[in-house]
Amino acid sequence: MALMSLRGFTQTSRWFRFSSVPAFKFHQTSLMGATVEQFEEAKNKLSTLKKDPGNALKLKIYALFKQATHGPCDTPKPGMLDFVNKAKWDSWKSLGSISQDEARKQYCNLIGSLVEAEGGSSAQEVSAQPAASGHVYNTLLVSTEDDITTIKLNRPAKKNAITTEMYEEIIDALQQAARDTCVLTVFTGAGDFYCSGNDLSNFTKIPEGGVEEMAKAGGDLLRRYVKAYIDFPKPLVAVVNGPAVGISVTILGMFDLVYATESATFHTPFSQLGQSPEGCSSYTYPRLMGPGKASEMLLFNKKLTAVQACQLGLVTEVFPDNSFQSEVWSRLRSYAKLPPNSLALSKQLIRSMEKEQLHAVNDAEVERLVERWTSDECFNAVMSFFQAKAKL
Ligand code: COA
User: Fold this and answer.
1) Which residues contact 105 (CB under 8 A, 6 or more apart)?
2) Atom of ligand 1 at shortest distance to CA of 199?
3) Contact (CB, 8 A) for 148 and 239
4) Where are the strands (E) in 70-113, listed by range?
5) Does position 14 have pLDDT exceeding 50, yes or no?
6) What is the distance between the alpha carbons of residues 361 and 282, in angstroms, rounded to a whole number?
């Protein structure tokens, strides 16, 4: 576990992934502070650096970014063995109560000096793919094209496992997409995996309040996460580009279309992990596929092929691997030309009858999981996962 974390510490790409920001003209940094535009510009420039500035500077950049966007550090101190997050937390905490404006200014100055040291001009115009909202995400690529908002999970090295930060960003991206002018919202994954589910290292970051506090915070986050799908007002499409595990599979019952590449698989190994189903699957799965087939998946960890998942109604259609992207996207582009209000209102009509029920199911599932996360069964299963990795 420690080795895995240290490896993450040296992966500069993860530190520098501030994606989906609009192109801005650079304005000279003022001595009084930095404008939001200058801050966005500095973030763009960070990803253009050719040389690794070293861990000390990367920690400083991280800390200033958090202080500028969030304010003073108010998150629980990571556990002793969680080296990477502990180092990041320490760096952020060390900024004390400096204002967000001051942090923005220091951030811009620091990036500016790094760019200049590489011989670049700090007054250069930089283009980047804009997110519809102009929001900046560390773990997602959010883009808008042809009236389609695409939310792409972007941790391919970790098979797009969902961290706490990523849950928050997905909630935010869904809320933004609900308000934008696009007709469809599409969910997909970067790399060869769709998603490997909950990042199991979420369970290793025990706050000072202990496992109970971690479980309660996890439960609150999960409730909000699933709620964002239940309440999503427009057609939601999953483009399942590879294997899918855990919550990325259970939540599929909330999607209006699920298109899968033929080599995708669908696996919900909850009992194996001492856990229980979420994403409203304890309700949607028996309705979709009947109680027996739902039990095979949710209780007995049966992994389905894409074709099997399609036969059971979890997947809408399966496409050959070699034409998956082209066929799916050309289909979606044509769907996105349909009248947007008619689509959204029809979707709401289809879902409205069971919305209240889904919220109640979400509450019940979260309550059960909060209990499971404090159980020995879950603790031992998570430890086994990381111990098996450490032996490799
Ligand atoms: N949580 C934390 N880390 C995960 C992860 C998860 N859910 N899924 C993958 N990773 C990490 C691996 O630890 C590995 O990290 P490392 O490179 O630092 O060692 C990296 O992602 C690549 O995964 P790896 O296991 O080497 O790839 P694989 O193709 O052999 O197997 C999976 C992929 C998804 C089958 C396997 O990683 C797995 O079983 N993950 C756990 C899935 C799970 O139980 N999810 C929760 C369901 S409730």
Assistant:
1) 29, 30, 32, 33, 34
2) 1
3) no
4) none
5) no
6) 8
Cβ–ligand 1 distance for 269 under 6 Å, the answer yes
Nearest in space to 173 (alpha carbons), one of 218, 139, 142: 142
- Protein residue closest via CA to atom 28 of ligand 1: 159
Length of the chain: 392
CB of 11 closer than 6 angstroms to any ligand 1 atom = no
Q: How much of the chain, in percent, has pLDDT values that exceed 70?
A: 85
* Per-residue pLDDT tens over the stretch 38-82: 888 888 888 777 777 766 678 888 889 999 999 999 988 877 656
Q: Are the C-beta atoms of residues 337 and 234 closer than 8 Å to each other? A: no
CA distance 383 to 385: 5
Of all protein residues, whose CA lies closest to atom 10 belonging to ligand 1?
Answer: 158
Q: Is the CB of 256 under 6 A from ligand 1?
A: no
Q: What domains lie within the chain, and their CATH numbers?
A: 15-121 (1.20.80.10), 128-391 (3.90.226.10)
CA of 158 to the centre of ligand 1 (A): 6
Of 223, 262, 268, nearest to 370 by C-alpha is 223
0.90 exceeded by pTM: no
Residue 234 CB coordination number (10 Å)? 21
Q: Give the distance, in angstroms, between the CA of residue 199 and the centroid of all CA atoms in the same chain.
A: 10
For 75, residues 6+ apart whose C-beta sits below 8 A from its C-beta are: 89
